[in-house]
Each structure stands twice: as structure tokens, then as C-alpha cells.
Write a structure and sequence with these properties.
single chain, alpha/beta, 8-stranded mixed beta sheet, 6-stranded mixed beta sheet, 18 strands
Length: about 550
């Protein structure tokens, strides 16, 4: 399938004249309604609702392109209409800009996944000045369609799929096995990728993943492979379920194979995951236009019990998910919620990143209990016996610094004490009181060794970005830095050098205003950041 093949000459207006963007959209929807069953009023209403979520105007060097779009019950199939205005149509909420090329894309709910792929391709094509100039200069609908076909030729076909989103789970650890099994048992096509084939052998031999606990059964997968090209091909959603320290390398592996409109979800992002992956994709495959999202936490509590087997202890009721930029959540979330309704809209990736409570608890408790862990091999209650008044005082200091860094970015982050009340209904005058009031912490043992992800993952992917952003914004983080320093000495690793600093996140030198513009998808104020903003829009 190609966009040029979806267009009909009667749905192309090469001399569009309209006093406003709303009028132009209505005209183009009207063209579609002349030949196809379209509820024009409902389609225009749904496009207007989508526009309110975030402007779809793309400013280029000398022209502006508008891509108004919506998923709507007004139609039965994917439809495209194109309008050209050489004088430009005034576009609302754009600072006086005018749209010279307007592409209306409508999708029925059942073609949502395909709609995102088409939208991703349109975003790629319409951010190239030479292509836009060629389309605007077309003298007839047939000439415009011919020029669009030529521009699409190097990109090949858009895979249509079967109407249901297809998933690829990247990572065959505890969380990845649980997610792949859950999706497959729900009836979705699922591929499983792992960088090392040894972990996949038992799954291939069994013909799927055997699950116990919250779910029961043998889940058959469509593909189990260590070949990233094979795994990613044909997937609408890429669920990255690996330690946060592997997000960068996984993005590097997948980058050459990512297609326009694919959805990449980090499960979870920890702190700054989406920003880091976006930077890697800009460097490794700058032309591609995927959607990037991160979950606030992992959906499952699970453990691989034997090769090819996983036990799911619990599935969370609600997990916030945010996109980069934030307004794209209205496009992405409906696709994911078809299979996993537990995901709910998150505000933005700054909020999901800085509400990372694991950053407060895991590293500090582990570092401050290092002697006890090594002496007992973790034979004590981690959150009860491991948190004394002195340890809790350090946790509260780290938490205050996290909340202060969030506030410097204009984000209201929940304190750890507030989070305990919201998550477990555990209240207390102090953080220590609240932790001791949480019955869910009873019986949870400490790690058997200090060589554990509570340090190796949470320090570089949670504490380092908080401290690095704090340093850039002038927010002191002495307690956080002390834990980073002690963890680095204990593991013999420079976690500051290996972690998600502002350089790795691609935000060094940016103002608070520009960082917030970046995450919401607005136009940053500097030329450098304008290029960054455009490169991350889908």
C-alpha cells in the first residue's frame, strides 16, 4: 500500500482557497464525501478535537505543511485528501503562519495501526522541502499524485496488516516473557526478540511461553528470533522490556529496521528513557518517523521460573504512559489499549521520568545495607529491617532533591510518602512511618548480593539523570551524588560517566522553556532546538 495509490483525483485540490484552516479542512472532507460514504460533520468535529490536543502544522524553510488527522466513526476505511494553497491558508494557534500544503487523513477505528504508519510516512515526506515544493507546484491533481508516487518510491510499500496491532517484544527476561505471553494469550500476533539466542532456545522448543500465576497456559508466538530485522518487520508496536541501561543499545540495534509510524514503548523508561532513545534514533536513522513512548513502571510482577517458563505474580491495574512529544499520546494510546487496557494517559515524559520512586528507594537502601547484604546474603526484610531512622533520613533527602529537580522543570512530582499513600494506602507523618504502615513490604527479602540492578540499573538510569539535570538547572543534589559516588566505588564502575547525563539525553544547554517545548511538541525558541523538535515529531 502507498499513499499515492490511496488518493483519488477528485480528493485533490491544487487551487484551494479558504479563509481559515477549519474551512480548508471542511472543504477537503467534503471532497471525500462526494465519492465515498463519509459523515462529513462528524469527521470535521473529530479532526477539530484532535487539533486541540496539539497543532499538526509543520513549518519548513519557506512553506508550512498541515497534517490534520483523526480516528473517527465517520468513515469505513482509511481516506486521504490533499489541498494546495500557494498563498497559504491561515492556521489557528500557529503565530500567524499559513499552510501551503494540507493533507487530511481519516481512519476508521479498526484501521488505527495502519493509520499511524501512513501518518508516519506523511510526516517524513512533508518535512522535506524539495518534496513539499514539488507538491505545491503541481498544476493538476494527476501531477501531484505522480510527484507523490515518485517521492514514495524509495520507501516501498506500507504493510497493511490484518486490522489488529502486531507486537514485537524486545527482551526475553522476566518482564519481556510476561508481556509476550500476556499479549499472545490475548489473541495478538507477537514476535519475541532477544540479543542472545541462548535464552530463546527453550521457547522455540516448547512452541511458545508457558505461564503460571495470574495467567495460565502456553502462549504461541508468531516469531522467536535473535535477528532484529526479522523481529521488527511487520510489527506495529515495539515493546522494549529490558533493563534501562540497555535502552540505548537496544535502540542502536533496532534503529536501522524501524519503520515510519511504528510505536516504540519503553517498559519502563526509568528517568529520561524516551529522551535517550530519541537521541539515538536521530543519530542512527534520522529520516524515520516512529512514535516514542515510555511507561512509568513495569506492568508486571513476574519471574522466569525455568527456561521457557514465567510466573506472573501480579498485573497492575493502571500504568501511566507518556509520549515524546506529549500530544501524540492521543494517537498512540488507543492502539496499545486494544491489547493492554491497563495503560492510561501520562502527562508527559518529564512527569513519568521524575515520578520514578525506585530512584529514591532502591540505590540508597542497597548501598546503606551493603554490609548486611553481604553478611546474610540478603536474608532480612529489605523495606522493613533495612530502613532504620538513619536510612530513612537519607531516603527523604534523596526524595527532596528529586522533587526539587522536578519543580525546577515545572513538574509537580509526588513525594515518596505521597506515593506510598496513593499506591498502598499507607499513611504516616514521616516517610519511615509510611513505609512501616505498608503491609505490602512485609516479607520482601533484600537482594542476595550488592551486584544487583537496584544499583547497576537504578543509579545510572535514575539517579544520574536527576543529578545531571539538577546540576544544569542549578539545583543542588548532594545526597543523590553521594549515593552515586558510593555505588560507583562499590561496583568499580564510574556510573556518572556511564549514566544518562544531560549529554546522553540530548538536552545539554537547553533552557527550562525549551525542554518543556521539546516534551510537549511545541516549537523551541532557538534554531538548534527547533531542529531537535522537528526531528522528534511523528
Amino acid at each position: 500500500m502507498r499513499i499515492s495509490a490511496m488518493l483519488a483525483p477528485e480528493a485533490v485540490a491544487t487551487d484551494l482557497a479558504a479563509p481559515s484552516g477549519e474551512a480548508a479542512i471542511a472543504q477537503l472532507v467534503g471532497l471525500l464525501a462526494q465519492k465515498r460514504p463519509v459523515d462529513a460533520a462528524l469527521a470535521v468535529k473529530d479532526i477539530a478535537a484532535r487539533e486541540r490536543a496539539g497543532s499538526t502544522l509543520y513549518p519548513l524553510a519557506s512553506r508550512c505543511v498541515a497534517l490534520p488527522h483523526a480516528v473517527t466513526a465517520a468513515i469505513r476505511q482509511l481516506l486521504v485528501a490533499v489541498g494546495v494553497s500557494r498563498e497559504g491558508v491561515p492556521w489557528a494557534s500557529s503565530g500567524g503562519r499559513r499552510a501551503h500544503l494540507i493533507v487530511v487523513l481519516l481512519s476508521a477505528p479498526e484501521t488505527h495501526a495502519l493509520y499511524l504508519r501512513v501518518l508516519g510516512r506523511l510526516a517524513r515526506l512533508c518535512q522535506q522541502d524539495d518534496i513539499v515544493e514539488g507538491l505545491v507546484g503541481a498544476a493538476s491533481p494527476q501531477e501531484l499524485m505522480s510527484r507523490l508516487a515518485a517521492a514514495e518510491e524509495p520507501l516501498g510499500e506500507i504493510e497493511a496488516g490484518d486490522g489488529q496491532p502486531a507486537f514485537c517484544v524486545l527482551g526475553a527476561g522476566n518482564g519481556g516473557m510476561a508481556m509476550a505471553d500476556h499479549l499472545a494469550l490475548s489473541g495478538y500476533k507477537v514476535a519475541l526478540f532477544n540479543r542472545t539466542p541462548e535464552r530463546l532456545g527453550a521457547v522455540q522448543a516448547r512452541g511458545g511461553i508457558e505461564v503460571t500465576g495470574e495467567l495460565e497456559g502456553l502462549a504461541a508466538l508468531s516469531n522467536v528470533t535473535a535477528d532484529p530485522a526479522q523481529a521488527v518487520s511487520g510489527a506495529d508496536v515495539l515493546m522494549v522490556v529490558v533493563p534501562a541501561t540497555a535502552h540505548k543499545s537496544m535502540a542502536e540495534i533496532a534503529a536501522p529496521h524501524i519503520k515510519d509510524g511504528q510505536i516504540i514503548v519503553l517498559n519502563p523508561g526509568r528517568t529520561g528513557g524516551a529522551l535517550e532513545v530519541a537521541r539515538v534514533l536521530r543519530e542512527r536513522n534520522p529520516a524515520v518517523r516512529p512514535y516514542i513512548a515510555e511507561a512509568q513502571t513495569l506492568l508486571y510482577a513476574s519471574r522466569v521460573t525455568n527456561p521457557g517458563q514465567v510466573h506472573i505474580f501480579g498485573i497492575k491495574n493502571s500504568v501511566p504512559l507518556a509520549t515524546l512529544p506529549s500530544y501524540q499520546v492521543v494517537d498512540v494510546l488507543p492502539v496499545i489499549r486494544k491489547a493492554l487496557p491497563q495503560f492510561v494517559p501520562g502527562d508527559n515524559v518529564l512527569k513519568t521520568s521524575l515520578d520514578n520512586i525506585g530512584a529514591v528507594f532502591h540505590p540508597a537502601i542497597t548501598v546503606l545495607n551493603a554490609a548486611r547484604i553481604e553478611d546474610t546474603h540478603g536474608d532480612f526484610e529489605y523495606y522493613v529491617e533495612g530502613v532504620t531512622p538513619a536510612v530513612a533520613a537519607v531516603l527523604e533527602a534523596v526524595d527532596r532533591e528529586r522533587v526539587a529537580v522536578a519543580a525546577a522543570l515545572g513538574i509537580r512530582a509526588n513525594t515518596a510518602r505521597e506515593w506510598l499513600y496513593l499506591a498502598y494506602d499507607a499513611a504516616g507523618r514521616t516517610l519511615l512511618d509510611a513505609m512501616r504502615a505498608n503491609p505490602g513490604y512485609g516479607g520482601i527479602k533484600a537482594p542476595g548480593t550488592v551486584q544487583h540492578r537496584y544499583i547497576s540499573e537504578d543509579v545510572p538510569a535514575s539517579l544520574v539523570p536527576i543529578a545531571s539535570i539538577g546540576e544544569m538547572l542549578g539545583v543542588p543534589t548532594p545526597a543523590t551524588r553521594a549515593i552515586i559516588a558510593l555505588a560507583s566505588v562499590m561496583h568499580g564502575v564510574d556510573y556518572w560517566a556511564e549514566g544518562r547525563t544531560v549529554d546522553q539525553l540530548g538536552i545539554r544547554g537547553m533552557s527550562v522553556k525549551d525542554i518543556r517545548f521539546l516534551v510537549v511538541g511545541a516549537e523551541p525558541s532557538s534554531d538548534r532546538n527547533a531542529a531537535v523538535g522537528r526531528s522528534q515529531r511523528g
